[in-house]
Amino acid sequence: MSSPFQALVFDLGGVVVQHDNAVLFTRLASRCAPAWGMAEVGALFRQSRWETGAPIRDFHAQLKAEAGYAEPWEIFLDDWCCHLAVDPSMLALMGELARHNRVVIFSNTNQEHWDFVLAASGGAFAAYEPYLSHLIGHGKPAVRAFEVVAEQAGLDPARSIFFDDKPENVEGARQAGFQAEVFRDEAWLRGFLAEKGVRA
Questions:
Q1: Is residue 104 within 8 Å of 128, Cβ to Cβ?
Q2: DSSP state of 194
Q3: Going by C-beta distance under 8 Å and a sequence separation of 6 or more, which residues neighbour residue 172?
């Protein structure tokens, strides 16, 4: 491999995976008691840190107990993943980059969402060294989360670059010593990497 970076580290949601939490919370609310709308379901969700390992089955149980959600786990899983879609063009770009670069994933996620997007990628995401918040026990934007990824992956943060659509996550990466940029879109990324001398 010949690359100006030791590793290219990618977030998934908003970069390679399209997602819209409003769609998720609206779908869940549609199966809850009338008093529960998108905002109320979203507020219940944000009471816990699901991305660092709390079981999503517990959120399903909360919805049933507090919001009147009556569907079984299998239907909930469909609802839980209804807002996710892999961007095929970005997935292809990751494959191109991996021919000449070390490509790594660092995502705030949970097991159910990971299982869904892994299947949707045809298993491709597994090849890109995934570091997942619910497995490492730390989530972005915490500096410690990036430190753990660097330690487990054997990365020198100063020689690696991280891409995320959220500025606060980019700032967390920078505080941990990574080079980091806010992802805009695929065209921007291709241009940025070309300027840096990254082969795709």
A1: yes
A2: H
A3: 140, 141, 142, 143, 145, 146
pLDDT per residue as tens digits for the range 84-140 = 999 999 999 999 999 999 999 999 999 999 999 999 999 999 999 999 999 999 999
Confidence of residue 1 (pLDDT cuts 50, 70, 90): low
pLDDT at 3: 83
| Chain CA centroid to CA 98, Å | 19
Distance CA 84, CA 104 (A): 20
pTM over 0.90: yes
Q: Are 113 and 84 in contact (CB under 8 A)?
A: yes
Dist CA 49 CA 31 (whole Å): 23
Q: Of 125, 108, 109, which is closest to residue 16 (Cα–Cα)?
A: 125
Amino acid sitting at position 43: A
Nearest-angstrom CA–CA distance, 190 and 152:
28
